[in-house]
Specification:
Bound molecules: zinc ion
Number of helices: 6
Order of helices and strands: EEHHHHHH
Number of domains: 2
């Protein structure tokens, strides 16, 4: 069986394949340099989710418009929904509007950014706890 490299993720795939089974990117026939419809990029989606997740911008960017609108209207599910999306992106569980995983995923970057995100999230939770404690006491 002849093999070729997926121009999107570099995986070895059947030379006859029109779609990569690893990253789900469409590949134009007999032209491994031309990916017709590439999934959204991992790092861009991650940054959108972190800075603008409460407005659902990462969902708009990754082609999931209905969920983007729902998140925009609910302020990212009060931030919780947006943060769950953010964690999914960090660990490569996030899919775009066409059910594909994000392009150029990097586990080291994902885990590092997730770890960094725990600092402000932890401080926020402490602040909320402190306020609740002050009111109750
Ligand atoms: Zn691929």
């Amino acid at each position: 069986m002849n093999m070729k490299k997926c121009p999107n993720c570099g995986a070895e795939i059947n030379s006859e394949a029109t779609r990569c089974y690893v990253c789900q990117a469409w590949i134009q026939e007999n032209d491994t340099n031309n990916v017709v419809d590439r999934p959204p990029e991992f790092l861009a989606t991650l940054l959108f989710a972190w800075f603008l997740g409460c407005f659902g911008i990462h969902r708009f960017y990754s082609g999931n418009i209905p969920i983007g609108i729902a998140q925009f209207l609910t302020f990212g599910g009060c931030g919780i929904w947006a943060y769950i999306d953010f964690i999914m992106i960090c660990f490569n569980k996030f899919k775009d509007g066409k059910g594909r995983y994000l392009r150029d995923y990097n586990a080291n970057v994902g885990i590092t950014i997730f770890a960094i995100s725990l600092i402000p999230i932890g401080l926020l939770l402490l602040l909320i706890l402190a306020i609740v404690f002050t009111i109750v006491m």
